Amino acid sequence: MPMALAHLPTPCDPMDRLGAALGFPPGGLLVKRDDLTGLAGGGNKARKLEHLCAEAIAQRCDTLVTGGGRQSNHVRMTAAAARKLGLACTVVLASDAPDTPTGNVVLDELLGPEIVWAGDLDYFPLEARIAEEASRLREAGRQPYSIPIGGASTLGALAYAYAVDELLAQASDVDLVVVADGSGGTHAGLVAGFGDHAKVLGVDVGTRPNLLDAVPEMANAVAERLGRPAPAGAIRLDVDHFGAGYGEPTDDCLEALRLTARLEGIILDPVYTGKAMAALIAAVREHRIDSTAERVVYLHTGGMPALFSPRYSSWIHSVI
After folding, report:
1. Rounded CA gap, 116 and 124, in Å?
2. How far is CA 197 from the centre of its chain?
3. What pTM did the predictor assign?
4. Domains of the chain listed by start with CATH number
């Protein structure tokens, strides 16, 4: 059984003012508010951590070990889950230590995990460093539980197969879910839950270089674990909106942040959710999503703390 870490079900609300600007009828564009899961500021990782932490406890582990970028939401929430459950936590951040902590790093320091500043690492070297830190702890007599970047394992992704049931109880006639794709686990779980790749549009934010292979592999593994057939169809992945790379600001992202804030009072972030919304807007404008006929759910995965990093706050301020 999963641990109780998230406030569920999360709301699924209409975005009628933004929808009208994009040509949707009332109720045609919805937002699934997984930014409101509650754990240390909320975000989609709370669902995955419920399953991952349950396994860690069952295996009598005493330390959660994971990693991410400097402004990782997953790291923040893993540290919070560890504290809530009375576990230790070691996190590897793919960055040099900042002179002054900002954004998620402030929250990381407040939660108090052991922070390993590993310097500039790409996705797979960071995964290797997480494994190294787990080995170090094991040699020191600890019982570590390793969690991949973003909680992107079969067990972590399983949480979003179950989330599909929650969503369909709120909006039974969903044609498409749009979601930011970092490590790919949320996308994979949604596909397994629907049983169809056509139901999910993932938006690559530049985190993981092999999403085209990783998402279908995870989706198949989740479906198998649930005793369901492999999902139909081929992965739908937008690779045109991460700009110069992971975390790099883009004009389309800024437009998406502004429109969503000023039309709906909903705050997106510049790394994940802003780029996913930018891709949704582009798909409507380019007629790849038919706003007059399709009912679309935008999955808000959280991430607000990154906005308080000087890198992004100064970017937003300079162009307002």
Report:
1. 16
2. 18
3. 0.96
4. 12-43+153-319 (3.40.50.1100), 45-151 (3.40.50.1100)
- What would the pLDDT profile of 65-84 be if each residue is shown by its tens digit? 999 999 999 999 999 999 99
Q: Which tokens is 55 given? A: 């396994």
CA distance 190 to 196: 9
The single residue listed with the structure tokens 């005493």 is 62
CA 225 to chain CA centroid, Å, is 22
Token reading at 160: 């979003």
The token pair at 134 is 């787990």
Q: Do the beta carbons of residue 203 and residue 279 sit within 8 Å?
A: yes
Answer for the pair 199, 191: CB distance below 8 angstroms, yes or no: yes
Residue type, 189: G
Cβ partners under 8 Å of residue 236, min gap 6: 197, 198, 200, 201, 202
Coil, helix or strand at residue 145: strand
- Residue 16 identity: D
Residues for the chain: how many in total?
320
- Predicted confidence (pLDDT) per residue in 242-287, tens digit: 999 999 999 999 999 999 999 999 999 999 999 999 999 999 999 9
- Single-letter amino acid, residue 195: G
Residues forming the active site: 72
Rounded distance between C-alpha atoms, residue 249 and residue 271, angstroms? 8
